[in-house]
Amino acid sequence: MNKYILLIVLPFFFSCADEIEKESYKIIELPLEAKDGYGAFNPLSSVISLEPRSQNNPWQKTNIELSGVPEEWNKSIVKQIWFDARQFAYQNYIAGNIDSVMFHGLKESWGFDPDNESFSSEPIKSFTHIALSETQDGNIYYRLDTDNDLDFSDEETFQTKNETGIFGSGKTHSVKLEVFRNGKVEEQETKLKISHFPFGLIYNFPVYYTASINDHIIQVSNGFESTDFRDITSLIIDPEDSALVYTPIELNEYLRLDDKIFQNLGVDANKMVLRLKELPEDTVLFSTQVGFPAKPITGNEFTSGQEISLNDYTGKFVFLDFWGSWCAPCIDELPMHVETYNAIDKSEIEFLGIAGSDNKERLSKTLKEFNVQWNQILSNEIPNQYGITGYPTSFLIDPDGIIVAKNLRGPNFPDTLDHYLKNYSGN
Fold first, then answer.
1. Which residues contact 395 (CB under 8 A, 6 or more apart)?
2. Confidence class of residue 21 from pLDDT cuts 50, 70 and 90?
3. Tell me, what's the pLDDT at 17?
4. Which among 31, 51, 62, 88 is positioned nearest to 267, based on CA atoms?
5. pLDDT tens figures, 253-262
6. Half-sphere exposure of 277 toward its Cβ, with a 13 Å CA cutoff?
7. pTM
8. How far from 148 is each of 55, 80, 83, 119, 158, CA to CA, in Å?
9. CA separation for the pair 109, 48 (Å, rounded)
10. Of 426, 331, 301, whose CA–CA distance to 310 is shortest?
């Protein structure tokens, strides 16, 4: 039998007349079980550079003296590996190793609030160290402080090349760390994989989690670049084959389980549970996810100045392209888009461009240079509403307003559009 915790939450909404309405929804908490590996996810990795920190590096004061680096190693360096970057920054700010200006910048760029998150003010083992030395033929020897005792003398030496001189696929180690949970410091152990990279080494933490609800298995990932869930909680529902490519459901996105819709609220690390919000059956959702209605768009067409809306295209496919005249990859794709647009049946599909972070003069020049004939909206607000963080980003929307694909790119772009047009069955 599946075990989960069901909470009833009653948020309050205040009207202009100070009347209070109550709307109830369910929060489900699913216990997580750790698994070794990456599951069905495509893992991220972080780089360990072979270049030493300069004396002017703002993190320089966070360095700790270690012992046990082999004396015979030529030009050895020691680098930090962070398990939880925010905890590491916070404890070093409290210790005076980074100043208030830098810490404020980290809070802004990393998007975290120590006043409303759980951090230890005392130093904890939120990081470990790795000692490295590179030979002339590019082989890298390293020792990892797996027991986190600031001493490499009790650690084994590894190298990135195998006995035949070929770079290996990487080595997974068990390492000790400390986490701050429920107001207490806990000792834990995790997996850390070290692999070769052209400019040094790369690492990640090959651990994912599973949760179950009814007959469904949910795989849960934090991206594998850290051990915490402060930034990322990605979900894959009922993966059948780890060799297939799945599109994860990200934090605050929606998932369908049977006839119900849930929102991914992320992982509560204190309880180690996945939190899902069950939405009312009559909820009307607009999203940027495949399988959901596209968010409404209204704006002034760049050339004519007339107001246009995504609803104007109802009954047709829409290739919605977020781009910019300043964006080199966008410009690289523009000739193919123009050629494809000139060849398509406009009664079946239309293009709509959203130019973000652009200016009128440069955009106008680009549209004329490439003879772009489809409608354009110059806007920063619409990209923000769609959560656009990189350009180009595109969506293919079907005649019913449902997103059916994202980020269609490359030489097969015309054939991919044709595939969706030919296989559309309608609601």
1. 288, 294, 318, 319, 320, 403, 405, 406
2. very low
3. 31
4. 31
5. 899 899 899 9
6. 16
7. 0.75
8. 25, 11, 12, 20, 17
9. 21
10. 301
Domains located in the chain, CATH noted: 46-204 (no CATH), 207-278 (no CATH), 298-422 (3.40.30.10)
Residue 357: CB atoms within 10 A of its CB come to 14
Cα gap 322→353, rounded to integer Å: 6
DSSP conformation letters of 102-139 = HHHHHHHHHT--TTTS---SS----EEEEEEEE-TTS-
- 40 CB burial (10 A radius; 0-12, 13-18, 19+): buried
Q: 351, 364, 298, 297: which is closest to 325 by C-alpha? A: 364
SS3 for 297? coil
pLDDT tens-place string over residues 124-175: 999 999 999 999 888 999 999 999 999 999 999 999 987 556 677 799 999 9
Strand partners, 49: 200
Residues 118, 23: Cα–Cα separation, whole Å: 29
Arithmetic mean of pLDDT, 100-117: 90
Interstrand relation of 349-355 and 375-378 (parallel, antiparallel or unpaired): parallel
**What letter represents residue 113's amino acid?**
D
